[in-house]
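Structural biology now treats backbone shape like a language. To illustrate, our science desk offers a sequence and the tokens encoding its fold:
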Amino acid sequence: MISEAIAKMIDFYQGNLHDINHFLKVYAYAKTIGELENLDRDVQERLELAAVVHDIACPLCREKYGSTNGKLQEQESAALVKTFLEEFSISEATVERVTWVAAHHHTLWEQIDPSWRGLDHQILLEADYLVNADEGGKSKDAVRHGLTKLFRTEGGKRLLCSVYQI
């Protein structure tokens, strides 16, 4: 099912190579961190689905606002994610969680109601940061700051330190 979601997301982006490459890299990091953290099968599946759809609102935000600002993405993504997931045979609880995680992928752990916190959300934040740091050309000092401010999983910390040699 994940492979079908990936193929559908590639179709959704209509040849936008930046968006396609971005979500594929975030997906790869999220999958890897989740496996390093030994997530159970259901949480891993939710994480991977959320990574696939996490930037689904970018094309709409570009058209509607002229910007892919994170808060705009969060505002617009829930309806798009629900529609995207309709064709897959997944539980309503999974749809709800994946939708919520995607709609909060720019919201830091501390800003989340504790009843909604979870490793799926945290790992998606970390995976997206790993990719955005590269795409945004962040300095080593900025990456070090990201490490102390954002990263909570050992797998995510390991990858960040290895990739950016900090």
Remarks:
- Residues 2-164 form a domain with the Hypothetical protein af1432 fold (CATH 1.10.3210.10).
- The chain has nine helices and no strands.
